Amino acid sequence: MKTISFYDAKSYDKMFFDKRKKDFDFEINYYEDKLNRRSALMAENSDAVVAFVNDTLDAATLDKLYELGIRVIGMRCSGYNNVDFKAAYERIHVLRVPAYSPYAIAEHAMGMAIMLNRKLHRAYNRTREYNFSLNGLTGFDFHGKTIGVIGTGKIGQAFINLCLGFGMRVLAYDPYPLERDGVTYVELDELCREASVISLHCPLTKETKHIINEETIAKMREGVILINTSRGALIDSEALLAGIKSHRIGAAGLDVYEEETDFFYEDLSDTIIQDDVLARLISMPNVVVTSHQAFLTEEALDNIAQITLSNLRDYFDGKPLLNEVCYHCNKKPGCKKDELARCF
Ligand code: NAI
After folding, report:
1. CB of 173 sitting under 6 A from ligand 1
2. Cβ of 101 below 6 Å from ligand 1
3. Catalytic residue annotation
């Protein structure tokens, strides 16, 4: 039986991975610590590592894991911007879960947009205090309004379905546009100028880092609702804060934050938050922050467990690694997957 060191483990992870592990013949050691160069030592005597979005898989961590004999890492997520793929290449296979429930994230994004537009978060607090006033709670109909979707992959498409259901006009920006009824692809500038709601569904890459910045915010419609369920660093947080203060941004729904690693998934209610930008954002009446929870549905958690363990089982059984990623991915020539069914 192969043993897995499982980092940043939470009770809901254990519940779903324990249910599935027998199907794949794994023993799992769960660690609450996040993976980094120090905690990597805990993977000694393991055959594989399972990591998550806020683990640090930099060169130092990967060197340590390689030294300990780890040759495969199962990312239990779809994003992988926290992995130094150059340091992993030809030493450690990195597998991921490309899709587990695009609906979970799309529905969370739409939920945030509706909550902010109709001020449900404020109404909830008011009525708990028997304050039944409606002052300041006016929203607008989504029906007939323009929504801008940045990134139209699996989640973006699921989100567009919801927008079309609401009767919205959908503008999209993606370097790889898809033919689709009801969606008009435009340049980013036009999307910013036209949309009453903007939702981010692209991955974090060198090109997309701070895709929402002072300049793009300046082009947006006054009062735009901005939703980010993708990756925090897509938005320049200081520019966002300035945009909210100047009323250019009418509301922001953030499931991710640029510097979330030290905060998200932890109960810090007894501490003083040292990140002034995050604290200020949270204090705003028109900002809702959730702790990277858009994926958190039963269906998604079960799929994550099943696909992560199946990826690792394929590695140990010498099967093709369909869900392997490396820094050559999508860059041909240089991709060995066609020939080897693995990245190296
Ligand atoms: P996907 O790979 O199916 O789609 C990504 C899309 O973004 C593709 O169509 C791609 O062409 C597009 N894209 C790439 N560069 C772009 C650019 N410069 N500008 C605009 N679009 C660009 O990925 P999927 O499954 O839809 O996931 C999207 C992102 O959602 C992930 O990368 C991840 O960061 C985030 N995510 C967040 C979760 C959460 O719990 N908050 C959970 C799962 C994913």
Report:
1. yes
2. no
3. 231, 260, 292
Residues 27 and 65 occupy one common structural domain:
yes
| pLDDT(331) > 80 | no
SS3 content of the chain, % helix, strand, coil (to 5): 35, 15, 45
CATH of the domain at 283: 3.40.50.720
Closest-CA residue to 58 (of 38, 79, 33):
38
Q: Probe ligand 1: pick from 13, 155, 213, 228, max atoms within 8 Å of CB?
A: 155
Q: Which of 105, 293, 299, 331 to mutate to test the pocket of ligand 1 (most atoms within 8 A of CB)?
A: 105
Domain end marker among 289, 316, 332? 289
pTM above 0.85, yes or no: yes
Q: What is the pLDDT of residues 220-261, one digit of tens each?
A: 999 999 999 999 999 999 999 999 999 999 999 999 999 998
- Enumerate residues 6+ apart whose C-beta is below 8 A from 215: none
